[in-house]
């Protein structure tokens, strides 16, 4: 397989349309892993962007087709264990169930089961040779998860059946898609330490996958997110994020769609935009802003550290962002991660590696209520002090009734101590 010119690469994606910066400074090279999964290099190194250097496209692992039958412990051939999902009749929520995830490698925390890092670049001569990246180096890569919570299996009809034959319990294949985005080849690095230029490539990856994944049959919501830190439950210690493509609308977004639609019906305006404007007017909880983005602690924050980020312009999804907005987002995300790491003082003034979740809420793919929505990032941590964690106990877990250990104003006050609100002049 040969690599195309940048112009040819633009033409190979039907739904993703790069802006001027990406056309000139980011090269996307697709390939296929040994078991049939899609893989993409996103290069920002000028040598690869120009085509002077090329990436390794052949996965040398002797993997069988991802959907092929396999032998069980007794030597019997069993079919691929396709993820299923069942609907909770009390809430209407779909619950994906993927038993194959029990076999995924874990390299972080006390429950580690693997010594090698499958997200690292290939290391010639290394005894661990089950890495997902064919090349010995990379900038940013995206690939289908080897142990997905949701996947469309060829030949499996997307039809509803019933558990135990009882119509109370609907079930159907979890025909979604799960992807991994590796932010950098340095497996010991932190996202907060990445240069803005690399985070700009990560932003492009979010936009690229949002555009392409939204066109997949049956996908209702595209959800890019990042889990960071052992306390969050991260199983692979490497700077990376994920993209979940749900064949349904997730409960959190469904609730937000109900409220944004009701608000539009009554007020004739966009709820998310009005929230942002109200936070700007109040001022106290705004922690950062630049030409394109506003970051604020929401007035009803649940988490002991929580920041929401919205674009100034009305935007529904990440792929709708223009070049300036993508650059300004990379700058703001960098500052948010750095200040998050400084939020809790251990007494030495050095801060800590903050465990966090960064969750992109964007308009659903097909639901007509998408017109009432607005792109926003919800960034939060359940650490409530340098040595304390906010546990979701009886009230939160049992009734989803939140009890906060702080106030939004105190969260914002701490962020104000860590840097200026206006970050328009901050670059790489």
Largest sheet: 11 strands, antiparallel
DSSP summary, beta strand count: 19
Envelope shape: globular
Strand content: 15-25%
Q: Structural class of the secondary structure composition?
A: alpha+beta
Nearest-integer average pLDDT: 92
One letter per element, helices H and strands E, the order comes to HHEEHEEEEEEEEHEEHHEEEHEEEEHH
Description:
By secondary structure, the protein is α+β, with helices and mostly antiparallel strands. It folds into 2 domains: 6-107 and 115-220, no CATH class; 251-418, 2-Layer Sandwich (HIT family, subunit A). Helices cover 24% and strands 21% of the residues. It contains 9 helices and 19 strands. The strands form 4 sheets. Strands 1-2-7-10-12-11-16-17-15-14-13 form an 11-stranded antiparallel β-sheet, sandwiched between helices. A hairpin with a 3-residue loop joins strand 13 and strand 14 (293-296). The radius of gyration is 22 Å and the shape is globular. The protein starts with 5 loop residues before the first helix and ends in a 10-residue tail after the last helix.
């Amino acid at each position: 397989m040969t690599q195309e010119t940048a112009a040819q690469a633009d033409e190979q994606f039907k739904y993703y349309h790069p802006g001027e910066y990406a056309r000139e400074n980011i090269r996307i090279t697709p390939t296929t892993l040994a078991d049939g999964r899609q893989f993409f290099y996103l290069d920002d190194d000028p040598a690869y962007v120009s085509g002077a250097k090329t990436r390794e496209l052949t996965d040398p692992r002797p993997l069988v087709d991802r959907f092929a039958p396999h032998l069980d412990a007794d030597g019997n051939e069993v079919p691929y264990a396709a993820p299923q999902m069942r609907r909770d009749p009390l809430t209407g929520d779909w619950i994906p169930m993927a038993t194959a995830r029990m076999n995924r490698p874990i390299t972080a925390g006390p429950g580690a089961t693997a010594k090698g890092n499958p997200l690292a670049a290939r290391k010639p001569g290394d005894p661990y040779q089950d890495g997902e990246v064919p090349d010995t180096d990379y900038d940013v890569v995206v690939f289908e998860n080897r142990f997905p919570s949701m996947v469309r299996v060829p030949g499996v009809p997307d039809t509803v059946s019933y558990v135990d034959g009882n119509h109370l319990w609907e079930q159907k294949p979890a025909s979604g898609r799960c992807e991994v985005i590796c932010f950098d080849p340095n497996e010991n690095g932190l996202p907060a330490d990445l240069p803005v230029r690399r985070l700009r490539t990560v932003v492009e990856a979010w936009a690229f996958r949002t555009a392409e994944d939204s066109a997949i049959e049956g996908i209702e919501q595209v959800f890019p997110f990042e889990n960071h830190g052992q306390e969050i439950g991260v199983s692979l210690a490497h700077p990376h994020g994920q993209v979940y493509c749900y064949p349904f609308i997730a409960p959190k977004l469904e609730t937000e769609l109900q409220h944004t639609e009701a608000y539009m019906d009554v007020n004739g305006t966009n709820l998310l935009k009005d929230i942002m404007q109200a936070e700007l007017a109040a001022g106290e909880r705004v922690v950062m802003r630049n030409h394109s983005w506003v970051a604020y602690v929401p007035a009803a924050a649940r988490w002991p550290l929580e920041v929401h980020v919205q674009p100034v312009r009305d935007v529904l999804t990440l792929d709708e962002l223009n070049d300036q907005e993508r650059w300004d987002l990379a700058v703001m995300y960098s500052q948010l991660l750095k200040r998050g790491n400084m939020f809790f003082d251990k007494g030495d003034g050095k801060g800590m590696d903050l465990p966090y979740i960064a969750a992109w809420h964007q308009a659903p793919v097909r639901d007509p209520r998408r017109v009432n929505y607005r792109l926003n990032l919800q960034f939060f941590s359940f650490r409530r002090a340098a040595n304390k964690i906010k546990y979701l106990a009886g009230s939160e877990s049992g009734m989803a009734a939140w009890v906060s250990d702080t106030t939004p104003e105190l969260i914002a006050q701490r962020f104000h101590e860590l840097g200026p609100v206006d970050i328009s002049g901050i670059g790489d």
